[in-house]
Structure formats: structure tokens, C-alpha cells
Design brief:
- It is a single chain.
- The protein is an alpha+beta fold.
- It has one domain: SOS response associated peptidase-like (hypothetical protein yedk fold), CATH 3.90.1680.
- It has 6 helices and 16 strands.
- The strands form 2 sheets. It has a 5-stranded mixed barrel with strand order 5-6-13-12-9. Strands 4-2-10-11-16 form a 5-stranded antiparallel β-sheet, with no helix packed on it.
- It is globular.
Amino acid sequence: MFCYVDELERPMCNLYSMTKNQAAIIALTRAMRDTTGNLPTLPGIFPDYMAPIVRNAPDDVRELMMGRWGMPGPPQFGGGAITNIRNTKSAHWRAWLKPANRCVVPWTSFCEYDDTKPKKTPSWFAFDEARPLAVFAGIWANWHGKRGTKANPIEGEHQLFGFLTTDANDVVGAIHPKAMPVILTTADEIETWMTAPAEEALKLQRPLPNGALKVVMTGEKEDKAQRLTVLTLVAPTL
């Protein structure tokens, strides 16, 4: 029923993790309201999953909330849900590039698939093995319709999100040459993305410098490594 791709039908970044807590997200993004409830550890976030975003809410409060991954796609691509947005000059996306529809998407690692044989190999990227919290530059929208699987469609009002992509840097490009997510690394970049006019904000649609990321895990479809490390550190001594 649903198709989850980037707008150019390129298989890419349709899996990421978010394993930090709400307090860390709020501190990084300066969110003033949290509606996520008891936010779980999310070692594998796939298209159509619910995941935390920080948006400019309709009442102008910066809000940490749960959204569903996959924006309504352009009609020329069949209207399927779009996880990654590259062509920000498209008329379809311009309406959602104003500050009211911008968001940031917290993450701790993201996955691309190495084109190995006989099966592709999941490769997880982060800034280092500790998986520090960072954010993708995203957009969100209210949308009414069906989402979910063919067996379990969910009809109603949805808060959808996607994030921007750009050219790959050297680390990501060695596995996925065509693109990488747009990543914001400082408080100033987050503020610019959330508040600046579109012309200024879109200057952030650029790759990270070469060497800024590293491959921290391969072969798994969930990044549970950090969670296991934390559990080991806090386990009682018997």
C-alpha cells in the first residue's frame, strides 16, 4: 500500500536509531514542551515508525513530540510516502520549508547498505562509538489519510516528518556514494534551521566535512550496541 523512498527513488537512509533520553534532546534543541510521554530507546527506526522530532508547534512553542516517518510525496512519484527530501527547489516541498513546518530529528546513528553479495550489508554511521546525540534537518506536516501496512492501515490525522539529504562526504560516500542526511552539529545551526528565512536555512543543506563520521557497526538491522554498553556499566556487581 505504501512506498517509502527518497524523492528520486534512490534506496538510502531508511533506517536510523535514537538511544538518548528526553533530557538530552531538550538540552540540545532547547525544546520548551515535551509531549512524548515515556520515550523508549529506539535502536531501529524504519519508515512509518513513530519517532521523536522537535518542531515549531502551531502555538509557536518549540515542542518535542512523536511523529510518523514519511512525508506525503509528490504526485509525479505516485504520492507514496517520502522519507528523504533532496530537491528543495521543488514546488511540492517549498510550502513546507517555512519555519512553521521545519523540525529537527534526533538520532544517534544511521544506516546505509553496502552493496555486497549475495546480500547487502547494513553499515551504521555515527560521530564515534559512543553515538553522541545529533539531529537531522527535517520538515513536518499534518496529513489526513491512511498510513501503516496493508494488513493494519491506520486512518486519521497524522503528524508526518522527513529529513533533507545532500551530497555524501567521504565516509558515507564509500558505502552510499549518492547522498547522506543533512546533519546539524551546533546549537547555532539548529537555531538557524528552526527560525531563519528559507534562503538562509537551506545553506545548511550540505555534507559534513570529510572524516566527520565513522562506521561504528555492520551487519545488524538495529543498533543495540550503545544500549548494551550502558546496561553493562550499570549492572550490579554480584
